[in-house]
Protein backbone atom coordinates (compact mmCIF):
# COMPACT_ATOMS: atom_id res chain seq x y z
CA UNK A 1 0.00 0.00 0.00
CA UNK A 2 2.81 2.38 0.92
CA UNK A 3 4.58 1.56 -2.35
CA UNK A 4 1.47 2.42 -4.41
CA UNK A 5 0.96 5.61 -2.43
CA UNK A 6 4.56 6.67 -3.07
CA UNK A 7 4.15 5.93 -6.80
CA UNK A 8 0.94 7.96 -6.92
CA UNK A 9 2.66 10.92 -5.24
CA UNK A 10 5.55 10.75 -7.70
CA UNK A 11 3.15 10.55 -10.68
CA UNK A 12 1.13 13.50 -9.41
CA UNK A 13 4.29 15.52 -8.91
CA UNK A 14 5.52 14.78 -12.44
CA UNK A 15 2.12 15.69 -13.91
CA UNK A 16 1.94 18.92 -11.92
CA UNK A 17 5.45 20.01 -12.88
CA UNK A 18 4.77 19.16 -16.55
CA UNK A 19 1.62 21.29 -16.60
CA UNK A 20 3.40 24.22 -14.95
CA UNK A 21 6.24 24.06 -17.46
CA UNK A 22 3.75 23.88 -20.34
CA UNK A 23 1.99 27.02 -19.09
CA UNK A 24 5.20 28.89 -18.29
CA UNK A 25 8.44 27.38 -19.67
CA UNK A 26 10.43 30.27 -18.16
CA UNK A 27 9.39 29.50 -14.59
CA UNK A 28 12.51 30.11 -12.46
CA UNK A 29 14.31 27.01 -11.29
CA UNK A 30 14.19 28.34 -7.73
CA UNK A 31 10.40 28.04 -7.72
CA UNK A 32 10.64 24.43 -8.89
CA UNK A 33 13.12 23.64 -6.15
CA UNK A 34 10.78 25.19 -3.60
CA UNK A 35 7.88 23.09 -4.94
CA UNK A 36 9.94 19.93 -4.68
CA UNK A 37 11.09 20.77 -1.16
CA UNK A 38 7.54 21.41 0.00
CA UNK A 39 6.38 18.01 -1.26
CA UNK A 40 9.26 15.99 0.16
CA UNK A 41 8.58 13.96 3.27
CA UNK A 42 10.40 15.14 6.40
CA UNK A 43 13.32 12.91 7.38
CA UNK A 44 12.83 10.64 10.35
CA UNK A 45 14.29 12.04 13.58
CA UNK A 46 17.55 10.45 14.79
CA UNK A 47 17.18 7.64 17.28
CA UNK A 48 18.87 4.44 18.48
CA UNK A 49 18.85 3.02 14.93
CA UNK A 50 20.27 6.16 13.32
CA UNK A 51 23.98 6.44 12.39
CA UNK A 52 24.42 8.75 15.38
CA UNK A 53 22.73 6.30 17.75
CA UNK A 54 24.68 3.31 16.43
CA UNK A 55 27.97 5.17 16.64
CA UNK A 56 27.29 6.27 20.25
CA UNK A 57 26.43 2.69 21.22
CA UNK A 58 29.62 1.41 19.57
CA UNK A 59 31.67 3.97 21.53
CA UNK A 60 30.12 2.79 24.80
CA UNK A 61 31.22 -0.76 24.01
CA UNK A 62 34.76 0.33 23.10
CA UNK A 63 35.45 2.69 25.99
CA UNK A 64 37.00 0.64 28.78
CA UNK A 65 39.33 1.78 31.54
CA UNK A 66 43.04 1.06 31.03
CA UNK A 67 44.53 -1.90 32.87
CA UNK A 68 47.01 0.42 34.61
CA UNK A 69 45.37 3.55 36.04
CA UNK A 70 47.04 6.95 36.25
CA UNK A 71 48.62 7.80 39.62
CA UNK A 72 50.28 11.09 38.73
CA UNK A 73 49.72 13.56 35.89
CA UNK A 74 51.92 16.58 35.16
CA UNK A 75 50.32 19.68 33.61
CA UNK A 76 51.58 23.20 33.00
CA UNK A 77 50.74 26.19 35.16
CA UNK A 78 48.31 28.72 33.75
CA UNK A 79 44.81 29.87 34.60
CA UNK A 80 42.33 32.58 33.67
CA UNK A 81 38.64 33.39 33.70
CA UNK A 82 36.70 32.63 30.50
CA UNK A 83 33.72 34.85 29.74
CA UNK A 84 31.21 33.02 27.55
CA UNK A 85 28.63 35.07 25.64
CA UNK A 86 27.20 35.78 22.20
CA UNK A 87 29.86 37.26 19.93
CA UNK A 88 27.21 39.16 17.94
CA UNK A 89 25.83 40.73 21.13
CA UNK A 90 29.33 41.78 22.17
CA UNK A 91 29.95 43.43 18.80
CA UNK A 92 26.62 45.25 19.10
CA UNK A 93 27.54 46.43 22.60
CA UNK A 94 30.82 47.74 21.17
CA UNK A 95 28.91 49.68 18.51
CA UNK A 96 29.91 47.33 15.70
CA UNK A 97 27.81 45.31 13.29
CA UNK A 98 29.14 42.22 11.49
CA UNK A 99 30.49 43.11 8.06
CA UNK A 100 33.21 41.58 5.91
CA UNK A 101 35.51 39.01 7.49
CA UNK A 102 39.29 39.27 7.51
CA UNK A 103 41.96 37.40 9.44
CA UNK A 104 44.39 39.40 11.58
CA UNK A 105 47.51 37.86 13.12
CA UNK A 106 47.36 40.55 15.83
CA UNK A 107 44.27 42.52 16.85
CA UNK A 108 44.78 46.26 17.31
CA UNK A 109 41.19 47.56 17.52
CA UNK A 110 37.51 46.66 17.78
CA UNK A 111 37.38 46.79 13.98
CA UNK A 112 40.07 44.07 13.81
CA UNK A 113 38.09 42.06 16.38
CA UNK A 114 34.92 42.34 14.30
CA UNK A 115 36.64 41.30 11.07
CA UNK A 116 38.42 38.34 12.70
CA UNK A 117 35.19 37.20 14.38
CA UNK A 118 33.27 37.22 11.08
CA UNK A 119 36.15 35.52 9.24
CA UNK A 120 36.45 32.55 11.59
CA UNK A 121 32.76 32.16 12.37
CA UNK A 122 32.14 31.95 8.62
CA UNK A 123 34.53 28.98 8.52
CA UNK A 124 33.04 27.42 11.64
CA UNK A 125 36.49 27.48 13.26
CA UNK A 126 37.79 28.58 16.65
CA UNK A 127 40.57 31.18 16.81
CA UNK A 128 42.93 32.75 19.33
CA UNK A 129 44.54 36.12 18.60
CA UNK A 130 46.72 38.50 20.64
CA UNK A 131 45.20 41.95 21.32
CA UNK A 132 47.97 44.57 21.25
CA UNK A 133 46.13 47.53 22.86
CA UNK A 134 46.00 46.82 26.60
CA UNK A 135 43.48 49.56 27.47
CA UNK A 136 41.14 48.70 24.58
CA UNK A 137 41.30 45.02 25.52
CA UNK A 138 40.48 45.83 29.16
CA UNK A 139 37.45 47.88 28.04
CA UNK A 140 36.21 45.06 25.78
CA UNK A 141 36.69 42.48 28.54
CA UNK A 142 34.80 44.67 31.01
CA UNK A 143 31.88 45.18 28.64
CA UNK A 144 31.79 41.46 27.83
CA UNK A 145 31.86 40.48 31.50
CA UNK A 146 28.92 42.74 32.37
CA UNK A 147 26.63 41.85 29.46
CA UNK A 148 23.35 40.15 30.47
CA UNK A 149 23.68 36.40 30.06
CA UNK A 150 27.49 36.37 30.22
CA UNK A 151 28.82 33.28 32.03
CA UNK A 152 32.15 32.96 33.82
CA UNK A 153 34.19 29.76 33.95
CA UNK A 154 37.63 28.65 35.06
CA UNK A 155 39.87 28.91 32.01
CA UNK A 156 43.39 28.13 30.86
CA UNK A 157 44.62 24.81 29.48
CA UNK A 158 46.44 23.68 32.61
CA UNK A 159 43.65 24.70 34.98
CA UNK A 160 40.99 22.88 32.96
CA UNK A 161 43.03 19.72 32.44
CA UNK A 162 44.05 19.74 36.09
CA UNK A 163 40.44 20.21 37.11
CA UNK A 164 39.45 17.20 35.00
CA UNK A 165 42.10 14.99 36.61
CA UNK A 166 41.83 16.40 40.14
CA UNK A 167 39.51 13.71 41.43
CA UNK A 168 41.74 10.89 40.17
CA UNK A 169 45.38 12.05 40.38
CA UNK A 170 48.01 13.93 42.30
CA UNK A 171 49.32 16.98 40.34
CA UNK A 172 53.16 17.50 40.11
CA UNK A 173 54.99 20.45 37.89
CA UNK A 174 57.54 18.42 35.47
CA UNK A 175 59.51 19.37 32.29
CA UNK A 176 59.22 16.20 30.15
CA UNK A 177 56.57 16.22 27.39
CA UNK A 178 55.30 12.80 26.38
CA UNK A 179 51.91 13.77 24.91
CA UNK A 180 50.37 16.67 23.01
CA UNK A 181 46.73 17.64 22.47
CA UNK A 182 46.06 20.15 19.70
CA UNK A 183 43.49 21.39 17.19
CA UNK A 184 43.67 22.08 13.45
CA UNK A 185 45.05 25.61 13.76
CA UNK A 186 47.75 24.60 16.21
CA UNK A 187 48.73 21.65 14.04
CA UNK A 188 49.07 23.82 10.92
CA UNK A 189 50.97 26.53 12.82
CA UNK A 190 53.42 23.88 14.00
CA UNK A 191 54.00 22.62 10.46
CA UNK A 192 54.36 26.15 9.09
CA UNK A 193 56.87 27.11 11.78
CA UNK A 194 59.18 24.22 10.94
CA UNK A 195 58.46 23.91 7.18
CA UNK A 196 56.71 20.59 7.64
CA UNK A 197 54.22 18.82 5.34
CA UNK A 198 51.55 20.98 3.71
CA UNK A 199 53.03 24.09 5.34
CA UNK A 200 52.23 26.09 2.18
CA UNK A 201 48.57 26.10 3.23
CA UNK A 202 47.61 29.46 4.70
CA UNK A 203 44.60 27.92 6.45
CA UNK A 204 42.31 24.89 6.25
CA UNK A 205 39.48 25.11 3.75
CA UNK A 206 36.54 23.80 5.78
CA UNK A 207 37.02 20.39 7.39
CA UNK A 208 40.77 19.60 7.59
CA UNK A 209 41.72 16.89 5.11
CA UNK A 210 42.35 13.65 7.04
CA UNK A 211 45.28 12.60 4.84
CA UNK A 212 47.02 15.95 5.29
CA UNK A 213 46.47 15.91 9.05
CA UNK A 214 47.86 12.37 9.14
CA UNK A 215 50.95 13.47 7.20
CA UNK A 216 51.68 16.28 9.67
CA UNK A 217 51.14 14.07 12.73
CA UNK A 218 53.48 11.45 11.23
CA UNK A 219 56.12 14.10 10.54
CA UNK A 220 56.00 15.47 14.10
CA UNK A 221 56.43 12.07 15.72
CA UNK A 222 58.96 10.80 13.16
CA UNK A 223 61.15 13.92 13.09
CA UNK A 224 60.66 15.29 16.62
CA UNK A 225 59.32 12.38 18.67
CA UNK A 226 61.09 9.83 20.83
CA UNK A 227 63.76 7.65 19.24
CA UNK A 228 67.04 5.98 20.19
CA UNK A 229 69.10 8.86 18.87
CA UNK A 230 66.91 11.69 20.18
CA UNK A 231 66.32 13.08 23.68
CA UNK A 232 62.63 13.76 23.03
CA UNK A 233 60.01 11.95 25.14
CA UNK A 234 57.12 12.76 22.78
CA UNK A 235 55.28 9.57 21.77
CA UNK A 236 51.61 10.60 21.59
CA UNK A 237 49.51 13.29 19.85
CA UNK A 238 45.74 13.65 20.22
CA UNK A 239 44.46 15.77 17.33
CA UNK A 240 40.91 17.11 17.56
CA UNK A 241 38.80 19.12 15.16
CA UNK A 242 35.06 19.73 15.05
CA UNK A 243 34.01 16.59 13.17
CA UNK A 244 36.73 14.00 13.91
CA UNK A 245 39.69 13.06 16.13
CA UNK A 246 42.95 11.24 15.44
CA UNK A 247 45.19 9.69 18.09
CA UNK A 248 48.73 9.08 16.80
CA UNK A 249 51.17 7.09 18.95
CA UNK A 250 54.66 5.68 18.59
CA UNK A 251 54.37 1.89 18.73
CA UNK A 252 55.34 0.21 21.98
CA UNK A 253 54.64 3.14 24.32
CA UNK A 254 50.84 3.32 24.66
CA UNK A 255 47.85 1.00 24.96
CA UNK A 256 44.03 1.28 25.05
CA UNK A 257 44.06 3.72 22.12
CA UNK A 258 40.63 2.70 20.81
CA UNK A 259 39.02 3.56 24.13
CA UNK A 260 41.06 6.77 24.46
CA UNK A 261 40.15 8.29 21.09
CA UNK A 262 36.50 7.22 21.45
CA UNK A 263 36.31 8.73 24.95
CA UNK A 264 37.75 12.03 23.74
CA UNK A 265 35.21 12.21 20.91
CA UNK A 266 32.33 11.23 23.19
CA UNK A 267 33.08 13.96 25.71
CA UNK A 268 33.05 16.50 22.88
CA UNK A 269 29.40 15.66 22.22
CA UNK A 270 28.28 15.40 25.83
CA UNK A 271 30.00 18.55 27.12
CA UNK A 272 28.94 20.72 24.17
CA UNK A 273 25.32 19.61 24.61
CA UNK A 274 25.57 19.61 28.44
CA UNK A 275 24.29 16.02 28.69
CA UNK A 276 25.50 13.06 30.74
CA UNK A 277 25.37 10.73 27.74
CA UNK A 278 25.14 11.19 23.98
CA UNK A 279 21.62 12.19 22.94
CA UNK A 280 21.26 10.99 19.34
CA UNK A 281 18.53 13.56 18.70
CA UNK A 282 20.82 16.47 19.59
CA UNK A 283 23.95 15.52 17.66
CA UNK A 284 24.90 15.14 14.01
CA UNK A 285 27.43 12.91 12.24
CA UNK A 286 29.37 15.26 9.92
CA UNK A 287 32.72 13.52 9.53
CA UNK A 288 33.87 12.52 6.04
CA UNK A 289 32.32 9.20 5.01
CA UNK A 290 35.61 8.10 3.44
CA UNK A 291 39.13 9.46 3.22
CA UNK A 292 42.73 8.75 2.21
CA UNK A 293 45.20 8.15 5.04
CA UNK A 294 48.01 10.15 3.38
CA UNK A 295 48.79 12.61 0.61
CA UNK A 296 52.59 12.58 1.00
CA UNK A 297 52.76 8.91 0.01
CA UNK A 298 50.42 6.25 -1.34
CA UNK A 299 47.84 5.94 1.42
CA UNK A 300 44.90 3.63 1.82
CA UNK A 301 41.23 4.54 1.46
CA UNK A 302 39.10 4.10 4.58
CA UNK A 303 35.29 4.04 4.72
CA UNK A 304 33.70 4.82 8.08
CA UNK A 305 31.12 2.43 9.53
CA UNK A 306 29.04 3.81 12.48
CA UNK A 307 28.93 0.28 13.94
CA UNK A 308 32.76 0.19 14.04
CA UNK A 309 33.57 3.87 14.48
CA UNK A 310 37.32 3.68 15.17
CA UNK A 311 39.49 3.23 12.08
CA UNK A 312 43.13 2.16 12.45
CA UNK A 313 46.23 2.30 10.26
CA UNK A 314 50.00 2.18 10.75
CA UNK A 315 52.92 3.93 9.10
CA UNK A 316 56.58 3.17 9.86
CA UNK A 317 56.15 2.37 13.54
CA UNK A 318 53.41 4.91 14.24
CA UNK A 319 49.78 3.92 14.82
CA UNK A 320 46.78 6.09 13.96
CA UNK A 321 43.30 5.78 15.46
CA UNK A 322 40.52 7.85 13.84
CA UNK A 323 36.94 8.35 15.01
CA UNK A 324 34.17 10.75 13.97
CA UNK A 325 32.70 13.25 16.42
CA UNK A 326 28.96 13.53 17.03
CA UNK A 327 28.64 17.31 16.73
CA UNK A 328 26.15 19.02 19.04
CA UNK A 329 23.48 20.74 16.91
CA UNK A 330 22.72 23.44 19.48
CA UNK A 331 25.83 23.75 21.69
CA UNK A 332 25.42 25.11 25.19
CA UNK A 333 29.03 25.17 26.38
CA UNK A 334 32.09 24.93 24.15
CA UNK A 335 34.56 26.86 26.32
CA UNK A 336 37.37 24.55 27.40
CA UNK A 337 36.12 21.81 25.12
CA UNK A 338 39.56 21.10 23.64
CA UNK A 339 41.04 20.73 27.12
CA UNK A 340 38.25 18.36 28.19
CA UNK A 341 38.89 16.29 25.05
CA UNK A 342 42.64 16.09 25.70
CA UNK A 343 42.17 15.23 29.38
CA UNK A 344 39.50 12.58 28.74
CA UNK A 345 41.55 10.91 26.02
CA UNK A 346 44.64 10.91 28.21
CA UNK A 347 42.72 9.52 31.19
CA UNK A 348 41.70 6.45 29.16
CA UNK A 349 45.19 6.01 27.67
CA UNK A 350 47.61 3.52 29.18
CA UNK A 351 51.39 3.94 29.30
CA UNK A 352 53.20 0.69 28.64
CA UNK A 353 55.36 -0.35 31.64
CA UNK A 354 58.69 -0.51 29.81
CA UNK A 355 58.30 3.03 28.40
UniProtKB/TrEMBL annotation:
<protein>
    <submittedName>
        <fullName>ADP-dependent glucokinase isoform X4</fullName>
    </submittedName>
</protein>
<dbReference type="InterPro" id="IPR029056">
    <property type="entry name" value="Ribokinase-like"/>
</dbReference>
<keyword id="KW-0418">Kinase</keyword>
<keyword id="KW-0324">Glycolysis</keyword>
<dbReference type="GO" id="GO:0006006">
    <property type="term" value="P:glucose metabolic process"/>
</dbReference>
<dbReference type="GO" id="GO:0043843">
    <property type="term" value="F:ADP-specific glucokinase activity"/>
</dbReference>
<keyword id="KW-0479">Metal-binding</keyword>
<dbReference type="GO" id="GO:0046872">
    <property type="term" value="F:metal ion binding"/>
</dbReference>
<dbReference type="InterPro" id="IPR007666">
    <property type="entry name" value="ADP_PFK/GK"/>
</dbReference>
<dbReference type="GO" id="GO:0005783">
    <property type="term" value="C:endoplasmic reticulum"/>
</dbReference>
<keyword id="KW-0460">Magnesium</keyword>
<dbReference type="Pfam" id="PF04587">
    <property type="entry name" value="ADP_PFK_GK"/>
</dbReference>
<dbReference type="GO" id="GO:0006096">
    <property type="term" value="P:glycolytic process"/>
</dbReference>
<keyword id="KW-0808">Transferase</keyword>
Amino acid sequence: MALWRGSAYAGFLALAVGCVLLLDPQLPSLALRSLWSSLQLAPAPPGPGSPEGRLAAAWDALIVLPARRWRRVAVGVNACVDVVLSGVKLLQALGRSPGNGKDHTILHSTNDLEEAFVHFMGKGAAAERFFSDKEAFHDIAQIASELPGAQHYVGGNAALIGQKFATNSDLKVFPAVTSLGLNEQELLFLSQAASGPHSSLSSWNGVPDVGMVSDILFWILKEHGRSKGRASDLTRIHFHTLVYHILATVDGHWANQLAAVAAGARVAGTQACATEAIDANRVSLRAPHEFMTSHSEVGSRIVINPNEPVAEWRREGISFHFTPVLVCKDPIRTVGLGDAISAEGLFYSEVRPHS
